[in-house]
Design brief:
- The complex is a heterodimer of chains A (126) and B (109).
- With 126 residues, chain A is mainly beta.
- Helix content of chain A is 0%, strand content 47%.
- Chain A is built from no helices and 11 strands.
- In chain A, strands 2, 4, 5, 6, 9, 10 and 11 form a 7-stranded mixed β-sheet that branches.
- Helix content of chain B is 0%, strand content 50%.
- Chain B is mainly β and 109 residues long.
- In chain B, the strands form 2 sheets. In chain B, strands 2, 4, 5, 6, 9, 10 and 11 form a 7-stranded mixed β-sheet that branches.
- Classes of the chains: A mainly beta (126), B mainly beta (109).
């Protein structure tokens, strides 16, 4: 079964950058995508971006464009999300999430989030 | 940009009752690609319904989804104690690729 394991909690100062990792296991090929989402304390879910582990194609939500980069290392089945110029309102639980392995979704992304990492808390405070 | 609006914000019901949760989109959802998730405190979201009306693996049949275009509904036919949680609808489309409603909290009356 697919499992996503994320890196631990981080505390950052305003203006700094953070890089969160997400190691995938259980996939038999690289034809899957990894999404990054976040959830501020007591708030709803917000999609940030997506990367195809197969092609390296990326897609970002407009509100994060220019401030977030998602990458993948296929040799270790690990995806990364870097968020720059952190502000206090970036304090949130950051999740990676994915769907089934299917080349059909390589450019478009799977429509839903079947599998979730456990979340990585990023706290931004001076 | 598609905006999803869920109602009500909070729904207070008793175990055994029927729950009806609404999700309205600001424009038609592409291919009715609409999902529903359940999130309990301290847990990650769990996919319940995809394609507006198909149950995900292992989801009890008391959960059902319906709707098309801009109006969608999640119905829980007979509430169990473990069903009290926050529910989110989510759409898949072109701009943005994914977006969520603000959530409906289902609480015990």
């Amino acid at each position: 079964q697919v499992q996503l394991v994320q890196s631990g909690a981080e505390v950052k100062k305003p203006g700094a950058s953070v890089k969160v990792s997400c190691k995938a296991s259980g996939y038999t090929s690289t034809t899957y995508g990894i999404n990054w989402l976040r959830q501020a304390p007591g708030q709803g879910l917000e999609w940030m971006g997506w990367i195809s582990a197969y092609s390296g194609s990326t897609k970002y939500a407009q509100m994060f464009q220019g401030r977030v980069t998602v990458t993948t290392d296929t040799s270790t089945s690990t995806a990364y999300m870097e968020l720059r110029s952190l502000r206090s309102d970036d304090t949130a639980l950051y999740y990676c999430a994915s769907g089934p392995s299917a080349i059909y979704y390589d450019t478009s992304g799977y429509p839903y989030f079947d599998y979730w990492g456990q979340g990585s808390l990023v706290a931004v405070s001076s | 940009e598609i905006v999803l609006t869920q109602s009500p914000g909070t729904l207070s019901l008793s175990p055994g009752e029927r729950a009806t949760l609404s999700c309205r989109a600001s424009q038609s959802v592409t291919g009715n690609q609409l999902g529903w998730y359940q999130q309990k405190p301290g847990q990650t979201p769990r996919l319940l319904i995809y394609g507006a009306s198909s149950r995900a693996n292992g989801i009890p049949d008391r959960f059902s989804g319906s709707g098309s275009g801009t109006d969608f509904t999640l119905t829980i036919s007979r509430l169990e104690p473990e069903d009290f949680a926050v529910y989110y609808c989510q759409q898949y489309g072109s701009s943005p690729r994914y977006s969520f409603g603000q959530g409906t909290k289902l609480e015990i009356k």
